[in-house]
Amino acid sequence: MIRWTGLPLVLLLVCAASLPAAELNEQLSAWLQREITGPVLPEAEAQRYCEARVPRMPKIESAAWWKAEAARLRGEVLKKIVYRGEAARWRDAETKVEWLETIEGGPGYHIRKLRYEALPGMWIPALLYEPEELSGKVPAIINLHGHSREGNAYQPKQIRCINQAKRGMLAMSLGWVGMGQLRTEGFSHGRMNQLDLCGTSGLAPFYLNMKRGLDVLLCHKNADPARVAVTGLSGGGWQTIVLSSLDLRVQLCNPVAGYSSLLTRIGHYKDMGDSEQVPNDLATLADYTHLTAMMAPRPTLLTYNAKDKCCFESGYALKPLLDAGAPLYRLLGSEKSLRWHVNHDPGTHNYERDNREAFYRMVGDFFFPGSKQYDPKEIPSADEINSAKELFVELPAKNQNFHSLAMALSNRLPRRPQLPEEKAAAEEWRRSRRAELRGLTRAKNYRVSAVKSGREEKAAAAATFWRLRLGGDWTVPAVELLRGKPQETAVLVADGGRKRAAADADKLLAAGYRVLAVDLAGLGECGSAGKYHTMIACVGERFLGVQAGQLAAIARWSAGVHRGGPVTVVAVGPRVSNIALVAAGLEEEAIGRLQLHGSLGSLKEVIEQNLHVNQQPEAFCFGLLEVFDIKHLAALVAPRPVIFVRPGTRAKTELAELAAWYRLLGSECQPLR
Questions:
Q1: What SS3 class is residue 165?
Q2: 448-664 homologous superfamily
Q3: What is the CATH number of domain 63-408?
Q4: In angstroms, rounded to a whole number, what is the distance separating the alpha carbons of residues 82 and 91?
Q5: Which of 153, 202, 376, 521 has the CA that lies 20 to 30 A from 19?
Q6: 3-class DSSP state for residue 306?
Q7: Distance in Å from the first CA to the final CA of the chain
Q8: pLDDT in tens, 471-496
Q9: Where are the beta strands (DSSP E) in 545-629?
Q10: What is the mean pLDDT of residues 621-645?
Q11: Under DSSP, is residue 225 helix (H, G, I), strand (E, B) or coil?
């Protein structure tokens, strides 16, 4: 039996299902559902939080200074953002390529099928549209596609490649992870964050997908290294600017409706994009304005659509990029190399004929200057389109993907899995690991300014409604519930938000607690802030750290205001259980006990269950699994009681060490229930 100080928690340890709705206290439920902040404020605060951290373009001191600065940024982004963790080894691996069958094209060209390894075990399908008559060096074009089910069979992409080949160019069509032939659950873009959890860049497979394709193309004996271009639509446009800005082998680029400034994305949520477009910590170094400027003086055509309902409408997306890039092009004497094109017909999200001909003109001006034979008008080729079956490239049966790579990485993590077995070593372990946890989560010590927004009493119970302002960054809604004269406080958080936690609040009140039910960022009434979880990571913060910092601050405030000693945190659900563990690990004084209902038994379950980042965004904190699993987080809280009620399936094996750990620290706590 657990020995507690203060009020007994026996009622809290019962693994009971929620009471039937008919038996719930209707007034309690109504109080918990009361709107305090509404959805607009949390979203606005998340936007301001991110906006304040996005880097602006620096003041340009001279052409020489910018060239040095661009080189520094290029190297820093590659080293610190792209090639983190295991990705550094992937970068140095040999590029394997296998040429397969050649199929007939239309007049003047054929199509060679190939596959190559972007990283060990991860093969990418590709097509090379090769002119029949090749002599000397010719332009080489990388053609990318975006979020298209058809992948390499996407018709506008096929027409583009055919036109390039008919003009005597080498046109390579690259497959993209998560699309076309690689459209599998394991390659879903929101699962790249499983790699992030393991401390390896989830962005790396995307970048190596592109880079290795360029490597292969430039090995062609007829590829002219002075005339290399990259182009693509939507996600292909994003790939275009990322590869082109970071790889100086690219001499010309044309991203089509593919990206905008991070500041623009914050204000236009539909532009946010998948995880790869807002990767961890990119904005600690550069915005997409910087990437655009890093193209100078290389020819760049920015193409946008006037009525784009998908994303990146020309009216707001284009100008910030031109404002960033144009001064550099002027300074470097290449003002005419930065161009833009706005499509009005059809003006929707497209890379149709008008946009393709803008690209052909750009290629003609810079790769065939002064040529009277080069005609930028599109060569009709709709009758030469191939089916997906005809363009299918055979891939290995066990092709690696985000999920399989993360599974392999997680098997070796955490790096130091064992807890110390001597008390002196345990104290040093807790001290050093607490510092590591704060560094990993980037959690802040918020000060709370509380504003009472109402109070009601009914049937021997009372509710006080609070707006808790945290450090000028966040506002957390809270409902304080009372029955009788409680001596201790329980802070209640739930995955479903406080409005769905009436049964849990009722049990705590019956056990004699004052209950403070709160909705942290991304949960309940503050759910709208969760839309920006990837952007928060992109600007160098961590969503888990934001939430844990909020919870720790609220615990400190409550302990100070109510003067009942450290609070008990009751977390209902795997998401808030992770948050509570981190908050208690960092906050030693104000949080006295943890009750975790439905916690994961191991962070590895996030990967084993193949979770998408939007399902449990805080669980994907970059590099957390390198140092901590659930048992290590719980060990940081000890000797304060941490009780796992109905934890995940891995709990018995993963948390077995905790009982011995508590005994080592002089506590009789039995963590599992």
A1: helix
A2: Alpha/Beta hydrolase fold, catalytic domain (3.40.50.1820)
A3: 3.40.50.1820
A4: 10
A5: 521
A6: coil
A7: 11
A8: 999 999 999 999 999 989 999 999 99
A9: 567-572, 591-597
A10: 96
A11: strand
